[in-house]
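Okay, can you check this protein?
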Amino acid sequence: MPLMDSLITATTPAPPKMIVYGQPGVGKTTFAASANAILIDCENGAGAVRGLKRTPYLQSWPQMRQWLVELTSSPPDDVPALAIDTIDWMVQRIVEHVVLDLDPKAKGEITNTLGHCHGGYFRGREIVQNIVYRDLLPMLSAIADNGTAIILLAHAANTKITTPEGFDQRLAAPDLPQWIAQPFIEWADAVLYASQTGDQRTLLTRGTNVVLAKNRYGLAPELPLSWSALTLAMSDTPPTPSKEP
């Protein structure tokens, strides 16, 4: 069969893959609970959220990975969403695994850093990036392919970002190091900023000159911080095909 005959023209709706970030206490974990998500507990701060299904507190990347492998290979029935609380803590545990467990010259050395491990010159960063590109994101995509939405919760940080044009600007963004943040942002269908003004909690769905946000669904610029409101808005606006990897 000629390759041209395999071109796809139909839309293929799929569970969303999203990053939801904001200040502590804004309601990110409660948002995940309202999605009836299983929560990968990376920071031990979800115990007070009612009705939340969560793993035990996982203190290392191998522990976290074990759960992701099982969810990938043996997906449970009727799990609408998987949440990671938080992705910035998971990345930190991956960094610790690389610099403390995988470096043959300084195994268990607490002063080892990304700049000095694996021969120096920040080669440890490349190993962290390999884990994210070749292991973590493919597992999350496989879970999504099984019909489960992915919610990566993250703290917010004031981050300096260099635009493709070479200009530096400061934005509210997920609290991830700049050298590892881009793969997550490109992979996600939506990057949503959760904020609170008085009693009103909202999700910003489109980027501004001070906040990093995006979505592939043509969403209104602002929505209530509510899983039901978000999924309703997504169902009303089919996803836009992405050119990002």
Observations:
- The chain is about 30% helix and 25% strand.
- The first strand starts at residue 17 and ends at 22.
- The two ends are 26 Å apart (CA to CA).
